[in-house]
Amino acid sequence: MGEQVAGQPVRMTAELQLAGELNRLSQLMTRPFLRLHSEKHAISLAEWRALVQIVAAPGITATEICSRTGLTAMNVSRAVQLLRAAGRVTGERDTQDSRRNLLTATPQGRTLFDELAPSAERDIREILSVLNTDELAFFTALVTRVAAHADRTQDP
Question: CA 144 to CA 122: how far, in whole Å?
Fold first, then answer.
């Protein structure tokens, strides 16, 4: 980037523009969920993201949820605490490692997931409908590859 002159905009690099667009896309993908479900069902976006992972992988740990979602440990801990308080998930100590708490959706948590997931999927599908099947597969592969690289190269 060039030197900034007071009051003059600086040309944004492609990397910063891409990071901004990915963040915006993430926000746009979650906006319908927040508008339609968050208040009605008393569930935050972090809780929803944690619940999705717990339903997808019963017995998952909070650390694994952090890894799969990119949420911070503090946000996942709070989300799991709220989900447990609401009776949506349970946790039990791992018999092989007592430091690990294995999380599972309760029937109430699974029912909520089953109720909300079709709407969330439909909203995301609508946003991605601008891509044909091959483009969507390619886009998914690229994002997955870049995310995996970021996981390997970021500090823990």
Answer: 21
